[in-house]
Design goal:
With 196 residues, the chain is mostly helical. The protein has helices at 2-47, 64-68, 72-75, 79-87, 94-102, 112-128, 130-139, 146-154, 163-171, 177-195, and strands at 53-54, 60-61. It contains 10 helices and 2 strands; from the N terminus they run H-E-E-H-H-H-H-H-H-H-H-H. The chain is globular and about 95 Å long.
């Protein structure tokens, strides 16, 4: 009978340890899951414009938190923001265009799907909303990868949007350094296409 009780106690102790270990693992997984959910919520709120401020001209200005955030890495080359802009391309809000512009980074050149899609959308956005596009670039020159965006404008992946038409629209806008740089980039693209 003693052997039976000792064996029963060992089984009971073993079951108890398994139960405690299972509870510990379950709770640690839940904590990680909720932490990931909070990080995602923070990231989504962070990049959907809810954390932005407007300056006196009505342009969105990126707050300091966004520029220095590690979350910037999650937006560059991210197709999600391209899809969001494309779905609203006829009437985009500033935050849609700005999130799209934040996806540009030199590291994206190796991502063929992103590169082609973003290039086409860049021309489409500039064609349909030149004033809004340039306004956002002007108010965020220190935060965006302007050189990468200009390089994309120099190298269109297709000729769906006639560069002449885009140049005419851009030239009608008030002068700014960004406008001048965009005009130069589009002129380079135009001269490349005329040589082909």
């Amino acid at each position: 009978m003693n052997d039976f009780l000792n064996h029963y106690k060992k089984i009971k102790l073993g079951s108890f340890l398994i139960l405690i270990t299972s509870c510990f693992l379950f709770l640690s997984c839940q904590e990680t899951k909720s932490s990931n959910t909070l990080n995602k919520l923070h990231s989504d709120t962070f990049f959907n414009g809810k954390n932005e401020k407007e300056n006196k001209q009505g342009s969105i200005v990126i707050n300091e938190e966004r520029k220095s955030s590690k979350s910037y890495d999650s937006i560059k080359c991210n197709l999600k923001y391209l899809i969001e802009l494309e779905n609203k391309i006829n009437n985009p809000e500033d935050e849609d265009i700005l999130n799209f512009l934040y996806t540009f980074d030199i590291s994206c050149t190796n991502n063929i799907e992103y590169s082609e899609y973003s290039n086409e959308l860049l021309f489409q956005c500039l064609y349909k909303h030149p004033k809004q596009f340039i306004k956002l670039l002007n108010s965020n020159t220190n935060n965006l990868k302007i050189d990468t965006i200009l390089k994309e404008l120099e190298n269109p992946v297709n000729d769906k949007y006639l560069i002449n038409t885009i140049l005419e629209k851009v030239n009608k806008l008030n002068y700014s350094k960004i406008k001048e740089n965009i005009t130069k980039a589009l002129s380079k693209a135009q001269s490349k296409s005329s040589k082909e």
